Amino acid sequence: MPTEDTPLRDYPWIVVRLRCHFCRRGGDYRLADIVAKHGPRITMGRIVVGFVGGCHWAPWNPTRKPQKYGMKCGGFCPDLRASRPPDLPPSMTGLTVVDGGRGDQLPAEPGEQPRRRRVGGTNDA
Ligand SMILES: [Zn+2]
User: Fold this and answer.
1) pLDDT tens-digit readout, 77-98
2) DSSP alpha helices (H): ranges in 1-125?
3) In angstroms, what is the span from residue 81 Cα to ligand 1's centroid?
4) DSSP 3-state assignment of 13?
5) Cβ–Cβ under 8 Å, residues 30 and 36
6) Ligand 1 centre and the CA of 42: distance in Å?
7) Would you state the pLDDT for residue 125?
């Protein structure tokens, strides 16, 4: 699976997703476009750092005063250290086994509900 040390030429997916929690930048980039711009040897970590560097909330932005507890860009690539390709629909990734079994399933029909008696006053009239 890809990590920050993975060079672009070894990146397994054709789409590079970059996201930021704060500035809402980011998007899906074609690996070929990034390779054409930065070359095949640059690592994914450098791509993420470059993405963070373009952010107003980047921790090393010189126009901002250093704030120990201020917001920092949360730029990241959600596909690093993940084995699931970003460009496959969920239906193509196969079935996964989940915990539980038939005994845990809810019944299709509602069970017998205990009848409640109306207390006080009757509406039989
Ligand atoms: Zn950001």
Assistant:
1) 999 988 877 765 656 656 666 6
2) 31-38, 44-53
3) 20
4) coil
5) no
6) 21
7) 55
Give residue 41 CA to ligand 1 midpoint distance, Å. 25
What are the structure tokens assigned to 96, written together?
């996964």
pLDDT of 39 > 90? The answer is: yes
Domain ranges within the chain, ordered by starting residue: 8-80
Exposed, middle or buried, 73 (CB in 10 Å: 0-12/13-18/19+)? buried
DSSP state for residue 50 in the 8-state scheme = H
Residues at Cβ < 5 Å from ligand 1 ion? 20, 22-23, 55, 57, 73, 75
Strand boundaries in the chain, DSSP class E:
15-19, 26-30
- pLDDT confidence of residue 11: 95
Ligand 1 centre to CA of 27 (Å) is 12
pTM recorded for the entire structure:
0.63
